[in-house]
Specification:
The protein is α/β, with parallel strands linked by helices. The chain is 40% helix and 16% strand. The chain contains 11 helices and 10 strands. The strands form 2 sheets. A 5-stranded parallel β-sheet has the order 3-2-4-1-5, sandwiched between helices. A 5-stranded mixed β-sheet has the order 6-7-10-8-9. The radius of gyration is 25 Å and the shape is elongated.
């Protein structure tokens, strides 16, 4: 008689979130397949449990699946855990589950903490319909295609992102889908938990220059399909002002804010200049060609 594969949810930061059933299951199985054996080893040590561990991550998943299937067919019970949260969501597990189903091996789930659901319900954005996007591709046509799809997505979208790439991803989401509401959920359930809410342009300006750390989940408002999500010129100027405050030149800040928001760079630049002179920016007309900042190619004649 074959054993059972258990998918066990583990804490995403606060060890008090480990369920009684998860403790019992991890104590009773014959083997624990873990994304990071060192991290899981510390968790088991905290529980007072000693158990054989087998590394099981994206790089060795294909190699490990036949080994784990063999153990299960022999009658061993195996638990799969990720670094944190539920295995199988942007973490190893899905392919093993599919292989077990195909082979007729029993699969069970031990529900537990989930960064996806935790971020969604605390975001304040609609939860009746949502889509999980995982990590966006780093670049190229695949990233562009996913961004286009998100631009037309009417459901709330949940994404994972590296803290080092959050600013770039927010800028790409703004360019692709307009200035909808977003929430950055960082270090959920941990001591330094942080939730940053607002329109993408304002959040982008607010985190510019900050060194974000820890695990990050992005929750993005679905589109209404209306034109009211276009970025207001005042918001673009605020973004450019934040870039200037961070050390950028006015011309460079105007170009970058224009790239992120679609508001003409000349209009942003003129507003920055007038603000520096103490003039009201709300009354500034569209600048003439003479007033507009030079294009990025200006002064580069003869350069290859």
């Amino acid at each position: 008689m074959s054993g059972t594969l258990f998918l066990v949810g583990t804490p995403i930061g606060n060890l008090e979130d480990l369920t009684d059933r998860a403790r019992r299951t991890l104590a009773e199985v014959d083997l624990v397949a873990a994304e990071d054996t060192r991290r899981t080893g510390r968790l088991l040590e905290h529980m007072g449990v000693r158990k054989p561990l087998l590394s099981f991550f994206e790089g060795n998943e294909q190699e490990r699946i036949p080994q784990l299937l063999a153990r299960l067919r022999e009658g061993s019970n195996v638990a799969v855990v990720s670094d944190a949260g539920m295995p199988g969501l942007s973490d190893p597990g899905y392919r093993l589950v599919a292989a077990c189903v195909e082979a007729g091996v029993s699969v069970d789930v031990v529900p537990g903490p989930s960064a996806v659901l935790s971020a969604l319900v605390v975001s304040g954005l609609p939860t009746d319909r949502f889509v999980f996007e995982g990590f966006l591709p780093r670049g190229g046509s695949h990233r562009a295609a996913r961004l286009r799809a998100l631009a037309g997505e009417t459901r709330t979208a949940v994404l994972f992102e590296s803290p080092k790439r959050v600013e770039r991803t927010l800028a790409d989401l703004l360019n692709a889908g307009g200035d909808r509401r977003i929430v950055i959920a960082r270090e959920l359930t941990k001591l330094h938990q942080e939730l940053v809410r607002g329109p993408i342009s304002e959040v982008l300006a607010g985190i510019h220059g900050r060194e974000l750390k820890g695990e990050v989940v992005l929750i993005v408002e679905g589109t209404s399909g209306s034109a009211d999500q276009a970025v207001r010129p005042e918001t673009a100027v605020e973004l450019a002002s934040a870039l200037v405050a961070g050390g950028a030149r006015k011309r460079d800040a105007a170009r970058e804010a224009s790239r992120r928001t679609g508001v003409p760079a000349g209009r942003i630049y003129q507003a920055l200049v007038d603000a520096a002179r103490g003039l009201p920016t709300s009354e500034v007309p569209e600048p003439s060609a003479r007033q507009r900042p030079p294009s990025p190619r200006a002064g580069r004649a003869g350069c290859s």
